[in-house]
Fold this sequence. Notes:
- The protein is an alpha/beta fold.
- The protein folds into 2 domains: 3-86, Orthogonal Bundle (Arc Repressor Mutant, subunit A), CATH 1.10.10.10; 91-292, D-Maltodextrin-Binding Protein, domain 2.
- The chain has helices at 3-15, 18-24, 29-43, 59-86, 105-116, 129-137, 199-210, 224-232, 280-292; strands spanning 48-51, 54-57, 91-98, 120-127, 143-146, 155-169, 190-194, 216-221, 238-241, 255-258, 265-273.
- Strands 3, 4, 5, 6, 9, 10 and 11 form a 7-stranded mixed β-sheet that branches. It has a two-stranded antiparallel ribbon with strand order 1-2.
- Helix 5 (105-116) links the parallel strand 3 and strand 4 (120-127).
- Helix 1 (3-15) packs across helix 3 (29-43) and helix 2 crosses helix 3.
- The longest helix has 28 residues, at 59-86.
Amino acid sequence: MNLQELKWFVAVTETENLTVSASAMHITQPTLSRAISRLEKDVGVPLFDRKQNRLRINRYGEIFRAHALRALNEVDTAHQRIKTLTDPTTGTVSVGFLHSLGEWLIPSLVSGYRKLRPGVQFELRGAAADSVIDDVRNGRSDLGFVAPAPPVDDLVWVPVATEPVCLLVPEGHRLARRKSVRLEEVALEDFVALSPAYGLRRLTDSLARAAGFTPRVVFSVTEVSTMHAMVAAGAGVAVVPAPTKPDGPLTGRGVPIPLRDPDSSRTIGMIRGQHTVLSPVAEGFRRFVIDTTGSGAPPS
């Protein structure tokens, strides 16, 4: 039994005539007859009732036809999926990224690539750095964007952008009108921060350590947007990514103030599995990211 014989069988069930089916498929009638006989021998029962040189599909044939159609459809679907994976101009790229990068870097990269490859689709997953790394490592994501570089040897990390961070304070805070500050100036204040699994939290702890204090984190959250809301409500101060549009409206989200501390920025990198062979469509996007952000600056 092979796929060709299944296709011939389905064709015969539609005409119930060997001569007509053989002619339509450009094969001889004896060839088709032998193929149907082999199929019935493999199945172990007749699939047609034969009366006066006519074929009538029987109940066994009806059952077999339903499964044959599903099998042929599955094979056709497999061919289409493989074709999609091997075509760099179509298909889907799965990308994991830090939540905050969904506000600027990821939309810029994805929309820029789709201008070149409008047939490409994306599955986008915002998460904590550890989750992004695990998804890339386990193949759930083709590529990931995290900061800082993960301390692992089974992933390749390529820097693609530098993002400054700032101090976020509530409106009316004693520092709200300052043009810049040093982090040590808020050493005694309550902090709102991401949980320790997040790269931004590790950067916050590192900056505070360099400034000579340990931040008193009274609210630990999982979203940068929640940090903004908590600070705006007067719950404390926070270290957050600097706004991408400094002149944009910030009412209700706190007041961002540039930090003068050394290393008050984070380098964002793209990760992939060290031994992972990317699909052509994912590899195309990876090369686009490198070409677009090769200087380490955010894409325009």
